[in-house]
Amino acid sequence: MSAGTAPHPARAIRTFHPRRGRMSDRQTTALQQLWPVYGLRVCDAVSSDPAVPFDAAGLFGRRAPLVVEIGSGMGDTTVEMAAADPDRDYLAVEVHTPGIANLLDLVHRRELRNVRVAEGDAVELLRAMPADSLDAVHVFFPDPWPKSRHHKRRLIQPTHVALLRSRLAVGGTLHCATDWAEYAEAMRVTLDADPGLVNLHDGYAPRPAHRPVTRFERRALRAGRPIADLIYRRR
């Protein structure tokens, strides 16, 4: 580096792989027609001015308790939970294009008004949100990054948990689920260590009836991988 040259800022470690994948004709049509109605890109939603926080009320057209789901997959869980919970708004954050398109189609078919879909880095979006503004955060089956050298990419680690907790209102819940036993234990240790969170159960939670069983979860169970749910409340 030559004298007077500023160093490059450290690149943030991503907790996800950007993925596109092949889409069906139905999904392609949904993405083209429904994205302008229900979708937003994180890079567009995040203001460069920290004094201008993310505007959820403007996004949904009302003020209601807000749930953020990080990694909504194909959208089945998001849609089922939002349909059963119309008094809260659901913001699903995903990077898998076919999953985004499928969720848009499901939202339109179910005529749900309380779901929006964000494409991009959920951590970046959460940083732009006001403190104490979320009613719940759902992290269902995040990438376990099983290799030791990749553990730094895991979403549930102390710095990210502190961010998640700070965005929850007092009494708000953080609900995580995984089918990876080693990650489940690491999650529990990390969440227990956060002084602003309290475990609502003695260890892992009984499987909550309000979380739908997805195709991914069924495959995990058939493969003999038990499911661990962890539900914490912000103090």
Automatic annotation (TrEMBL):
CC terms in the record's Gene Ontology section: tRNA methyltransferase complex
Reactions that this protein is recorded to catalyse: guanosine(46) in tRNA + S-adenosyl-L-methionine = N(7)-methylguanosine(46) in tRNA + S-adenosyl-L-homocysteine
Stretches assigned to coiled coil: none
Broadest EC class assigned to this enzyme: transferase
Record: residues binding substrate: K147, D179, T214, R215, F216, E217
Annotated S-adenosyl-L-methionine binding sites: E69, E94, D121, D143
Pathway entry: tRNA modification; N(7)-methylguanine-tRNA biosynthesis
Keyword Chloroplast: no
Gene Ontology MF term list: tRNA (guanine(46)-N7)-methyltransferase activity
Keywords for this protein: Methyltransferase, S-adenosyl-L-methionine, Transferase, tRNA processing
PROSITE patterns documented for this protein: SAM_MT_TRMB (PS51625)
InterPro entries named among the record's database cross-references: SAM-dependent_MTases_sf, tRNA_(Gua-N-7)_MeTrfase_Trmb, tRNA_methyltr_TrmB_bact
EC numbers for this chain: 2.1.1.33
Any single Pfam family the record assigns to this protein: Methyltransf_4
PANTHER family given in the database record: 3-DEOXY-D-MANNO-OCTULOSONIC-ACID TRANSFERASE/TRNA GUANINE-N 7 - -METHYLTRANSFERASE, PENTACOTRIPEPTIDE-REPEAT REGION OF PRORP DOMAIN-CONTAINING PROTEIN
Protein task: Catalyzes the formation of N(7)-methylguanine at position 46 (m7G46) in tRNA.
Family stated for the protein in its record: Belongs to the class I-like SAM-binding methyltransferase superfamily. TrmB family.
Protein name: tRNA (guanine-N(7)-)-methyltransferase
The species this protein was found in: Micromonospora maris
Name of encoding gene: trmB
